[in-house]
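Record type: monomer structure entry
Structure origin: computed from sequence
Chain ID: A
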Amino acid sequence: MLFNSYAFILCFLPIAVTGFFLLGKYNHRLAASWLAAASLFFYAWWDYHIVYVLVLSVLFNYSCGYLIWTSRSVRKKRLFITLGIAGDLSVLGFFKYVNFFIDTTNQLLANQHIGLPTLSVVLPLGISFFTFTQIAYLVDIFRDEARHKKLIHYVLFVTYFPHLIAGPLIHHKQVMPQFAKDSCYRPDAENIARGITIFCLGLFKKVIIADNLAVYANGIFNAVHAGGQPALLEAWSGGLAYALQIYFDFSGYSDMAIGLSLLFNIRMPINFDSPYKSSSIIEFWRRWHMTLSAFLRDYLYIPLGGNRGSKLLRYRNLMLTMLLGGLWHGAGWTFIIWGGLHGLYLSVNHLWQEVRQRYGIDIVPAGIAKPLAITITFLLVALAWIAFRAQNVATMLEFYRGMFGVNGISLPGSLQPYFHGMWESLIRFEGATPLAAQQHLSLLYMLFWIMLGLTLIFGMPNLQQWTGYTPNISVIAPESGVQSQAPAPLGRWKPSLASGLLVATVFITAFLYLGRDSPFLYFQF
């Protein structure tokens, strides 16, 4: 079931919220059971045949957590956590990566005329998210940072529908204590008003902005995948369209999840904090998909050694973390390349910081240093998104050829009289975006949505700033750079007739476009 669907908004959500508070008047455990059952129904709506994977995963990890919690011997605790994590990764590896490894093996053994058959495997929705959530739970239990709870509370923790499919990644110790409070089971007018506001604005970001950007981005990427050679302007416009699409799509989902959770008086962690306003790649990863960044740091980078040891080891740890982070997103070489690019970016960023601090280098005037840094960071991130989006390595390389000018420049034919001499050998006059034109995609349409997206990102406050939403402080990753308490240029949201009319207008506009089949990008992970 999608957040951006009639079935969810008109049927599932009102029933889930009403049932939760009605039952909460009489019995908190019954209300929690209702919400857990509703969450399983929400998941089963996609494909009830695959629900067994989620259910068995929950039971397996609950059992491992119990064994870790009750074991007095450190040796036994280590045995059970190893068993739990190995089991989780084995299931994830089978469903998500087995065919990738089979295909890779077949390519390596192509000269030996050996071909392994691929398996017919259906990837369970959100398996990466609920697997990582439960691995974090096992580690927290092992470290005595979380307490083992009753089964129904654990089921609710994992399956809680606002975060189940695409995050944010949550910790048991951060969310479940909120369900233990009596106030959680009573409707809160301010939470409901703020939650509806955040949900509606997130819905607008997804349905109106991201989905319209997707029309152009998908058209260009599909054309290149089919053999097209994008010229300079076309490659960059397609790349920028996707960079904006994935931000508005994923941050829109996270906003909707936060808003939905507020309806139940639960404060979810912030997942985005204006990441494209970052002035460095280091800062970008403190602002983008913040719960995943915190997970990779706490459960991968630091155990690998983190900043300990030599600088070379730190760069190795960074690269390994980002390569595995890329592989977490998808089973393909393009995702690994995307992770490798960000590992390289981070290593160069850390090295540059050390050089600047050691030698006091300031080569850019102070007045333009930050805007220039933000621009460079955004363009580097946009370049890496090409690898993330491309269907295969060949498509990725062809896109990069276009972005770096290897495929030349194409301009409208009306400009040809103004270019003579050597320019005629460098410029094609087939239109600014010939591949898009072949698919009847409008250049003005593309420019409008790209400019609107850039204006909203760089010229407007984010939802946390405007609505004054704050998560549990323990949820925020240390040094995350969260700016949710910064004053919003247009003033803070508050329940009023004006804000109600604004939200109603935004909701109705988005609601009219819900008929399109448009799943969230991160559902595939």
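Annotation 1: The chain has 21 helices and two strands.
Annotation 2: Strands lie at 409-410, 427-428.
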